[in-house]
Predict the 3D structure of the following.
Amino acid sequence: MSDSQKMVRDQNRPIRPLCSMTEHEGVITLRLEMPGVSKNGVELEVEGSELHIRGKRTSPTQEGRYLVRERQAGDFSEVYTIDETIDRDKIDAVMEAGVLTVTLHLREAEKPRRIAITAR
C-alpha cells in the first residue's frame, strides 16, 4: 500500500465502547463491547443517580508500522443515569469474550404486578 493509499483515522476521537441496552421483565441489561480489555481493566461504580463505567484499553506491542489502525488505546469513561427504581444492591457485571454485561434489576415494588380477577 503506498503512502497515498493509507487509510487515516482520527486518532484523537474519544474511546467509546459500543453499547446496547435492553429491558425484559424488570431487568435492564447493558452490553458494552470492549475488545482487548480484561475484567481488571474496568471499574464500575454507583455515585448517587449515576452508574460510572471506567477503564483503560492498552495497545498491544506491534512490530512494523500501521497501515490502518482503528482500535485505539487509552482511558474511557461512560456515565448512565439510573433512578430510584433500580435496586443498587442488585447490579451485576460479567466480562466475557470482550463484552461487559451489566445487569440492573428493578426494585421489587417497581416491577409490574399482575392482579388476578376473581368472579363473584
Residues 16-59+68-110 form a domain with the Immunoglobulin-like fold (CATH 2.60.40.790).
